[in-house]
Amino acid sequence: MIGRISGRLDWRGPDHVLIDVRGVGYIVHVSDRTLAALPGVGEAVSLYTDLMVREDLLQLFGFPTMLEKEWHKLLMTVQGVGAKASMAMLGTLGAEGVARAITLGDARAIQAAPGVGPKLAQRVILELKAKAPAVMAQGVALSAAVPDAVIEDVPAAPAPKPARKAAPPPAAVARAAATADALSALTNLGYGPGDAAQAVATVASEAPEADTATLIRSALKLLMPR
């Protein structure tokens, strides 16, 4: 199983890239969001990958973080969701957006992805709503797991540029950490994972910059009996 590709970006296509690793070129399919965030041709690049195997086809799909890769694998467990639909959802909403939409039951957000109709969007929510809290709780660790971009020396090739670590935006890591901490605190207080995740997701959607304490306080207000 190929779990990660690190090398030099040789070519960019509309939905895939060619990464040179020691003179071997790997075609890696990526979402629109990931493609836009990649460096220029000739620069170091590193992506976590998921290998899809069919009788007549082998395809690599690339992701900037382990969190996004885990969401891709989870989305693929839904009946009717193939790699193309999964990448469309992640490309439109990102890992955090997909998690929030599923937790809140927001089918319209899922439908915003190209090629995803209302029935499929509803199925995604119904089948994954119970599983979303577990992935959300792992968010900070998975978001922080970012591969080093390593370039191997290739004979007769120009001297490689220094490898760069393609870290996720600090704000995204901070939001994932706050969400994970708030979920942990609420479940420790005895609230169910599903209820806690929905309350935290609701608060986070209304106040994206909220810290852990604010998430917990606001979520508790939603969870308290009326």
Question: Care to describe what's here?
Answer:
With 226 residues, the protein is an alpha+beta fold. It folds into three domains: 4-64, OB fold (Dihydrolipoamide Acetyltransferase, E2P) (Beta Barrel), CATH 2.40.50.140; 66-137, 5' to 3' exonuclease, C-terminal subdomain (DNA polymerase, domain 1, Orthogonal Bundle); 169-223, Helicase, Ruva Protein, domain 3 (Orthogonal Bundle). Helices cover 49% and strands 17% of the residues. It has ten helices and five strands; from the N terminus they run E-E-E-H-E-E-H-H-H-H-H-H-H-H-H. The protein has a five-stranded mixed β-barrel with strand order 1-2-3-5-4. Strand 1 and strand 2 (16-21) form a beta hairpin. The termini are far apart. Mean pLDDT is 82; it is low at 150-160 and 162-167.
Produce the secondary structure layout.
Elements lengths: L3 E9 L3 E6 L2 E6 L2 H6 L6 E11 L2 E7 L2 H10 L7 H22 L2 H5 L6 H11 L3 H6 L1 H6 L25 H19 L4 H14 L5 H12 L3
Helix pairs in contact: 2-3, 3-9, 8-9, 8-10, 9-10
